[in-house]
C-alpha cells in the first residue's frame, strides 16, 4: 500500500465508495474483502421487492462506473486492486432472486470470487479490453451474472 495515497482515498467521498469504505485497503485479497463488504448490503436489502433490489443494484452499478472512473484517474492505474466497488455490485448481482440463506450466501460468495479470479470467457476479455469506470465494473457484472446463473441452476436441481 506504500505506492498509493491511502489518506487521499479515505478522505474523499467518491474514492471512499470506490474502495468499499476502506475494505479495498486490506493488504491481502482486497477483492475478497470488498466482496465481504457486500454481504451486509445484501442482507439489508434482501427483503426488498425484486424490482426494488434490481433498481438499487442498477443504481449502484451506475454510481460505480463514475466512482471507479474517478478513482482510476486519481490513482493513475486502471482497475487498481484497492478499487472494490465492482466486487460489491458484482456480488449483489450474484444474489438476484435467490433465497438469502447462509448456505446460499456462502456458495454465492465462493462462486463469485472464483469467477472473478479465474475470469472465464468473456470476463477475462472484458477485463483486458474495456477501460474506464465501465471497464472496472463490467467484468464483475459478468462474474455476478455467471454466479447467479449457477445458483439458480443449483436451486432448480434441488439444492
Give a structural overview.
The chain has 159 residues and is mainly α. Helix 4 runs antiparallel to helix 5 (85-94), helix 5 (85-94) runs parallel beside helix 8 and helix 6 crosses helix 8. The model has no long low-confidence stretch (mean pLDDT 95). The chain is globular, with a radius of gyration of 15 Å. It has one domain (6-156). It has helices at residues 6-10, 13-18, 30-45, 50-75, 85-94, 102-118, 123-129, 132-156.
Total strands: 0
Helix segment tally: 8
Give a quick account of the main beta sheet: strands, pairing sense, barrel closure: none
Q: What percentage of amino acids are in beta strands?
A: under 5%
Q: Taking all residues together, what is the mean pLDDT?
A: 95
Kindly, what is the distance between the CA atoms of the first and last residues, rounded to a whole number of angstroms?
41 Å
Structural class: mainly alpha
Helicity range: over 70%
- Weakly predicted, low-confidence segments: none
Work out the count of structural domains.
1
Backbone CA Rg: 15 Å
Structural shape: globular
**How would you spell out the order of helices and strands?**
HHHHHHHH
Amino acid at each position: 500500500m506504500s505506492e498509493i495515497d491511502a489518506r487521499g482515498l479515505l478522505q474523499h467521498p467518491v474514492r471512499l465508495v470506490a474502495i468499499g469504505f476502506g475494505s479495498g485497503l486490506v493488504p491481502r485479497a482486497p477483492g475478497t474483502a470488498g466482496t465481504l463488504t457486500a454481504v451486509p448490503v445484501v442482507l439489508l436489502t434482501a427483503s426488498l421487492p425484486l424490482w426494488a433490489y434490481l433498481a438499487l443494484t442498477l443504481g449502484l452499478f451506475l454510481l460505480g462506473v463514475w466512482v471507479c472512473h474517478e478513482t482510476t484517474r486519481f490513482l493513475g492505474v486502471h482497475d487498481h486492486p484497492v478499487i472494490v466497488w465492482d466486487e460489491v455490485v458484482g456480488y449483489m448481482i450474484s444474489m438476484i432472486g435467490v433465497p438469502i440463506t447462509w448456505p446460499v450466501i456462502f456458495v454465492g460468495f465462493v462462486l463469485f470470487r472464483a469467477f472473478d479470479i479465474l475470469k472465464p470467457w468473456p470476463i477475462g476479455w472484458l477485463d483486458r479490453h474495456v477501460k474506464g469506470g465501465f471497464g472496472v465494473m463490467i467484468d464483475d457484472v459478468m462474474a455476478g451474472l455467471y454466479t447467479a446463473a449457477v445458483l439458480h441452476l443449483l436451486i432448480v436441481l434441488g439444492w
